[in-house]
Amino acid sequence: MGFGDRFTLAALAAEIGLPMRVDAPVSGDDAHRVPVMLRNGRGQLEAPDSDLLYLRVLDNEGAALTRLYVASDLAVALTNSASGDFPSGSGWKQLAGSAGEFASFLKVSAADEQAGIVIEVGWKEQGRAGKDLRRLYVGEAGTLGEDVDAQWDEAKAGHVAAGSFGKSIGDTETNVGSEADGSSASGSAHAKIKDVKAAVVAIGGAAGVADAVWDEAEAGHVAAGSTGLALKDARDAAVLAQLNLGDPSGGPPGFTTLADLIGAPSDAAVDPDAANGTLYAYLKKTIADLRAVGVSGGAAQAEIKEYPWQSATATLTADPTETEIDADGTATDPGGVPPFEILDVIDVNFPEGVGMTSEAVIKSIFATLKWTSQITTGVGTGSTKWGIDSLANTDAVGEAPSGGVTDITDVAAATTSKTTHQRSGLVRTDVIEVSGGFKLFLIGKCGTADDVLTATIFNSTNLEIDYKRV
After folding, report:
1. Mean pLDDT to the nearest integer, 187-191
2. The CATH number of the domain where 118 resides is what?
3. pTM assigned to the model
4. Which of 187, 410, 420, 451 fits 446 for a cystine, CB–CB 3.0-4.6 Å?
5. Cα–Cα distance between 419 and 415 in angstroms, integer?
6. In terms of domains, do 331 and 245 share one?
7. CB–CB of 366/309 below 8 Å?
């Protein structure tokens, strides 16, 4: 054991279990237990040399008093000290303990009233002497409860001097007030709260306040810099932008407010393609055109039919599909990082078959692709993405995609944390063949040699591809 360990395990401090004040007895003597615990540098109980504790009691003048006893009956005083470091001639007594714990009894007499007593303790540890003390005040005869009662029973009228705690408490009571205060004229907080409550009740409570705020006329809150004007401008700008009929900043066709956009019944009819036409002007032009068609029958129009979105089914090999690659290098660069390779292939076939074979028939295709990626072995990074090609493509899982495979999503980063990716959008239609379908490829690569990338397609057994035909 080194010096540091021996030092932290030595008895370094004493805990003396006495209050800082006790009351003198009305008559006779009282016994007060004096527990002492010695602790080492780690806070553990520690027995001193020979398991002996040394104690003495001094008055305010430093004179030794014989006040320490073995038991609460105060019949047997502690033994005089036999230690040269704590001489009995200076009033030191000694007490045997156990494992760093000691207990004796202090005698307090009626004559000690309003006196100060000092209890000193000492010990020896590994040949070194240590000391600690506790000062004790002996109060008047009686109980602490009686003293407390006397304090709280003091009349307020006797404590109104400026700056005193008594006056501060009295002023606080006045300012807070009571339920009896009838109006704010008294100045109390209680009265002011009652006035506010009465005002709120008068306008219908919380619901009435809310109604009053939202029922305020817009015209009264359009001053420059006001919240009302800011809300009005934001609403007008949002509506104008949504209608795509003008730039709220004042650009063509120049509408800056909804009132300008709506116009007035007196506005002359204007063609919808003309600049600065109001809604009233557009409506007048439209009504006039409809009336003209009703009279003459109008010119014959070509009929264009557009079918609603329908769904094609792509069959997956599993549910979910989980595939992985690892970057062990290539034949030309062992241990290096390989290029992208195919993780999974999905065939998409339209139910109409050969009837859905040309771009003239397919108008648009929309797909939602959802998958996860994770570097499951290693600490590097990786990438995943989706590509598309015709059904004639013969690229297989584990191979690098051929030149015919075209990316249809951006590259999604793969890290050591499992991440879910989702991309939605239109799919190219120029890859549809006579068979009426196409192939989707989930493609991935590791960014660091000897890593392993795992990808999982998040779809049910059937992947739904929406399409529109004309």
Report:
1. 72
2. 2.60.40.10
3. 0.35
4. 451
5. 8
6. no
7. yes
